[in-house]
């Protein structure tokens, strides 16, 4: 058994499969700007570095070139307005997520979320899932000047909750989660089922590779 007091979770691709809602918002943005819709696998590969990068990657694919600042800004505003309407609709949790989070809380583990998704969208998602009370701290990609793969948000959570990074576990689906945790001096679990630009999460060298969220209970709660 691994002994950690604080578990920091990624959100998209780790707790929820948010690509359906992100795809809706991306395609609404593309339609508004006169472009053809993007297919689901493409959107899946564009997630991971926050909304600005998602919008930039979608626009670059549609235009065949990098957007200028004005186009990017207009597209981001269109995306935000569309995503605001759907972010908390029809949420799908990966198998085992809700039960395992509840078991970790019952065992006295402290839980936090560090996502690259802009913070404004996150409270509604957690409220719609009944998870608002489970996490002591929630940081979005724009909560601090740096987002994952910077270790800054992970270390900020430890400082705020007065916890030692050496007794903290990061759990995520992307190399950004693994790199952030490694730079923060934290152990990290890489989940295989999320979004990692189509790459194998094992390649970034997490301490554990799990294909099932419920396996976290075996890692953290059995002795
Ligand atoms: O919004 C993103 O690009 C990714 O979000 P995540 O950090 O929760 O996976
Ligand atoms: Mg993720």
Write the layout of secondary structure elements.
Blueprint: E1 6-9, H1 19-32, H2 40-46, H3 50-63, H4 69-86, H5 97-106, E2 110-114, H6 122-128, E3 137-139, H7 152-160, E4 168-172, H8 175-184, E5 187-191, E6 208-210, H9 215-221
Parallel strand pairs: 1-2, 1-4, 2-3, 4-5, 5-6
Helix pairs in contact: 1-4, 3-4
2-phosphoglycolic acid (PGA) binds next to α3.
Overview of the structural elements:
By secondary structure, the chain is an alpha/beta fold. It folds into 2 domains: 6-17 and 91-221, Rossmann fold (3-Layer(aba) Sandwich), CATH 3.40.50; 19-86, DNA polymerase, domain 1 (Orthogonal Bundle), CATH 1.10.150. It is 43% helix and 11% strand. It contains 9 helices and 6 strands. It has helices at residues 19-32, 40-46, 50-63, 69-86, 97-106, 122-128, 152-160, 175-184, 215-221, and strands at 6-9, 110-114, 137-139, 168-172, 187-191, 208-210. Strands 3-2-1-4-5-6 form a 6-stranded parallel β-sheet, sandwiched between helices. α1 (19-32) crosses α4 (69-86) and α3 (50-63) packs across α4. The longest helix has 18 residues, at 69-86. The radius of gyration is 17 Å and the shape is globular. The N and C termini lie close together (5 Å). Pathway: Organic acid metabolism; glycolate biosynthesis; glycolate from 2-phosphoglycolate: step 1/1. It catalyses: 2-phosphoglycolate + H2O = glycolate + phosphate. Keywords: Carbohydrate metabolism, Hydrolase, Magnesium, Metal-binding.
């Amino acid at each position: 058994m691994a002994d950690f007091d604080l578990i920091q979770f990624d959100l998209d691709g780790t707790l929820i499969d948010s690509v359906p809602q992100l795809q809706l918002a991306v395609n609404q943005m593309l339609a508004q700007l006169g472009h053809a819709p993007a297919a689901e696998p493409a959107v899946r590969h564009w997630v991971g570095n926050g909304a600005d990068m998602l919008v930039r990657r979608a626009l670059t694919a549609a235009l065949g070139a990098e957007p200028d600042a004005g186009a990017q800004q207009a597209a981001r505003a269109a995306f935000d307005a569309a995503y605001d309407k759907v972010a908390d609709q029809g949420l799908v949790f990966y198998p085992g997520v809700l039960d395992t989070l509840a078991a970790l809380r019952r065992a006295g583990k402290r839980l936090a979320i560090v996502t690259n998704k802009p913070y404004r969208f996150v409270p509604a998602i957690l409220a719609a899932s009944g998870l608002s009370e489970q996490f002591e701290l929630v940081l979005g990609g724009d909560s601090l000047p740096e987002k994952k793969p910077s270790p800054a948000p992970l270390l900020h959570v430890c400082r705020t909750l007065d916890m030692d990074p050496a007794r903290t576990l990061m759990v995520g689906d992307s190399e950004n989660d693994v790199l952030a945790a490694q730079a923060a001096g934290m152990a990290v679990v890489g989940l295989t089922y999320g979004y990692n630009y189509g790459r194998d999460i094992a390649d970034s060298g997490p301490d554990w590779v799990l294909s099932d969220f419920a396996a976290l209970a075996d890692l953290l709660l059995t002795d």
